[in-house]
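Sorry to interrupt, but I need a hand with the structure work. Could you write out one complete protein record for me, on any chain you like? Just paste the record in under my message, thanks.

. . .
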Amino acid sequence: MIPVSLQPGDHFEAVVVGGGQAGLSVSRHLVEAGVGHVVIERDSVAHEWRDGRWDNFTLVTPNWHCRLPGYPYDGGDPDGFMTRDEVYAWVRRYADTFDAPVAEGVSVSLVEQRVGGGFVVHTSAGVITADTVTSATGGYHVPVTPAWADSIPHEIVQVHSHEYFNAAQLPDGPVLIVGSGQSGTQIAEDLLLEGRDVHLALGRAPRVARFYRGRDCMTWLADMGVYDVPVATRGLAKRESTNHYVTGRDGGRDIDLREFSLRGMTLHGRATGFDDGAFRFDESLPANLDYADSVAESIKNDIDRYIEREGIDAPVEDRYTPVWQPAEGPTAIAAGDIRSIVWSIGFRADWSWLGDLDVLDHEGHPAHAWGATAVPGFQFIGLPWMNTWGSGRFHAIARDAEHVAGLITSAVREPAAVA
């Protein structure tokens, strides 16, 4: 990595905003193509892996999925799951395997189209210009909490999953986790393993088994080509879908919320608000559990069909049987029975720095086709389902980065394309 000190008036053929794995992957291709560029990172390279995950975080995809341009996983546990610190170190090392020009500690506040072509980029280091600009900031920017969070008594500590690191940071006593996606369920398990009294409010998130018929389910899915199916064949609404919950902790295992209940975790339906001194939850718990299980079993059905079609010799195993059934009806928890809350209901995107660029749809989502937008010379990279299910995760970053870098290279080699 080559540190870059931006100066007002600097001009680059390409500016890449965001110094995570996606931005670095594009940079690798641009270096090889001889495109003059800079990667602008508000904090430090790959810092989200270190600063935005809890202490016991692990990847949920096997290590062999981790492959950046010219940099496949080469550790000793390809079927294991790297920890938070291992992922951070791995991505940091990647930046040092080539001369990535990176300006760390610099934020971008606005990008505007320049008269005559290209862009004006307003940064904390001054105004610079570029022939092309690529957003590599992902789509998870601002932690979300519900409006009714403000009505919760101030003595109940509230943190977002982005701010949760370990059980010790929360006061003693019962913890309510709101949200049952990947982060919510894994944090719930983390707290349960620490002996905490945990309440979990579920949404309609799907789950997947960790292993089935002798292999990791995600390895089966990769062999089946599921991660390579273009989003165009699934409908663009798929880009907003919730990821399946599972864990890579301790070598990987299922997250079975019914089994967690037998171990002392209290499950609730969707959290609907706080009033009359109590947290309120709807009656959706049974349906939400059934839905998650049905998705996991449907994935097993797909794997079964693949094994049969390909004539693969794989062990047969019994299917999942629910180990616990919840009572019907809504539930409530008195405020005095909760000491802290972990909000795990996701993030919203903040594209304010894009100004008036015509690169968002009517709902404010990035409008693109495999990264390319209606504004010549402006691209996205690193978004969920950017092109396939593998986009937005390590499995397909290299493929997406090669494509987006090709768009950039073509634009700067053909100046009329950005005029």
In short: The radius of gyration is 23 Å. Residues 304 and 404 are 36 Å apart (CA to CA). DSSP finds eight helices and 22 strands in the chain. The helical segments are 21-33, 47-51, 84-95, 182-193, 217-223, 257-262, 285-310, 394-413.
